[in-house]
Structure formats: C-alpha cells, structure tokens
Amino acid sequence: MTDLVADLLDPGNDWSNRVRDRVLGLSPELTGLVLHLGAASGFWNYQYKVDAAWKRRTKTLLKGDGAGDLVRDAVRELAQGGSFHGMTDPHHVMRELGQTRPPSPARGLAIGFLLAAGWLREGGDELAADLALTARKNVQAMDTYYRVDDGLAGAAFTALGELPGLAVMEELWALHYWVSPARHAHKVLVKSLKKAAARLGVPPHELAERTVPRHGLNPDGTLTLGWTGRGALWWNVPFDTVITVHGTGQVTVDWIDEDGTTTRTTAPYRSPHGFKARTHGESVDAVRRHAKGIQQTLTAERLRLALLADEKRSWLWPDWVRYYRDHPITGVVARSLEWEYEVPEDGRSHRPLDIGADGRAIPATARVRLRPEAESVPARSS
Q: Structure pTM?
C-alpha cells in the first residue's frame, strides 16, 4: 500500500516533498485514509460539490488514531510551506503551466486533505487560519504572486464552511473582503460564508454589512489594471487603466493610451474613440462591466445606509472602522452622514464624530451610531 501512496506524490512538486515522510510508512488505517483522499478529484466536481458516499467514508476514516494530526500537518504545509505549485525544476514548471502535460498527480491528494479538514472538530482556530491562507494563495488575494488554482481554493473555502467556531467566521469575513468576485471559486466562498453565518446565528444585517464587495479597490478607492506587474495581480489586461471611486460618490475610468494620453470617462464608461481597436475588445468590455458593478454596489450602499437611521443600531469602534469608515465603497457613503460616539467608561453622553480628525484617540470600547437628528442623505454623484 505504501507504493500506492508514493504514486500519489510527485518528486517535482514542493508540497509532495514536504509531506512525503509524513504520509509514507503509516499504519494500514492511516494509509487507507491517504489513498481515499488521493481520489478526491473523482468525487468533487467543478461546481465544488462533494460526493455524499465519498464524504461519509472520509468521516469514518477520520475517526482513526492520528488521522486528525495527519490532516492538520498536510494542510499546514499547504499554508505555511509555500504554494502547492512550487516547482523544483523547469520541466515541471512547464507541466504545471499546462503547456505539455496534465497537472501534478499530487493535486488530488492536496484537495482531499483540504476537504477532510472541514470535518475535523479539534484545533479549529489554527486550522481555520491555515485553510484561509491556503485559499488566499490560490486565488491571488495576496501581494505576493502565487499561481492561481480555483480547485485548491474552492476546497479550502468548502472546508471553512464546515468548521465550527467563531474564528472561522472571522477568516471568512476577511476572505470575502480580499477575494475578487471575478474568481470562479468566489461562488463557493459566498456559499460557505452564508452556511457558517447561519450555523453561528449571524443576524442578516450583520451579514449584509460585512459582505459588501470591495471589487479589488485599494483603500484609497482606486483599482489599477495593466499588463503583468503593472497593476492588480489578480487581473491582467493588455492596456493601462485606473478605476476610481471618488469622495463625491462618482465612479470614473481612466483609459491610458500607449503614448501616456489619459481619457477619463464616467458611466457608461466608454473607452476613447479607437482605443478598443488598438487594444483588446473583450478586456475593454470587462473593465466597463467592472466599473458598472462598482457603481451598482455604491448605489446599494447608499440605500442600505439611508435605512440605518430607523434601526437605531450602534457599532463597536473597531467594527465600525473596519466595515464602514475604511471600506473603499461603504466609506464613501459613510463620510456623507453624521455620526456620533460614546465611551461607556467615562460616563459622558454621545459626542459628534469627525471621521477625518478622530481616530486613534477613540478607544476600542467606544460605540458609534448615526446621529438621531441627522438626515441620512447619501453622497451625490457629481
């Protein structure tokens, strides 16, 4: 059986080499688990659905002594030890890029370990962090480039949706913020987040405010796109362009020609005459759709925040900063409204909040709310 496990590994794959000693020479029960997980690709489809019989068998095998530690070790290597697609020689690099040969046989085993992690019930907090980091590496939601693999990311998202504990919810909130909706695996992230939120009793209004799409915007409200290395790592286009959400609530697209000429357009974000013919029509259309999506999210946030005045809600300062002030889209609307805060410890009444001036002086225990007498008038597009 050890030979069968060795066949699942790949001498040219870094992750295989890191886990080789851990998965070889195991007891018959654990070897059976590894072989079962190695067949994951055949029981997990492109829609990120797990075969019910394969899942039941996995859960049974995970009850064996040492099974949980084995799965946690394998997932930790996917998270901490570099990308799964790290290569040791140029030949394998070419294969992994899909230019000559099929993907590494170890990929199915990696997916199996990720899926199995979701059915463990011990060490959830550390495991959630490892699953989240693995997912971010494989959907290019990091500043460092890793090869995109929606299959590995989808498996990590699926596992996170199964894990218990509040730490899982925090990891899912963060992933939803950083992962681009353009990635195919994003849909399973949304599904897993909603599943975990329902299990943990997260109220609908909290789910709504914590899942506002960022659309890849930087904190300053800009998204720069271009050739590889000249813009967002997760989306490369054959020209330079910048999408901006301004403080006024207006969304613009700057189309930059080869000679450096910049043309700024607003909705419906048409490119300059001849620009599409000189570049790539499908990419131009994709940029326009993205800008329109940002505009739609901004419109939805105007409506949502306008309705908050009737809800009489308040937020802890760190939560309000994270999901309102510092969000590149929600923050635009938030800055058009009047807020106030109170610090329970000092016994003082609510004080007006100056979003631009107030900051570190406000303690984490402070609570923020909309000023009751203020009219919730959203920012207008100029």
A: 0.83
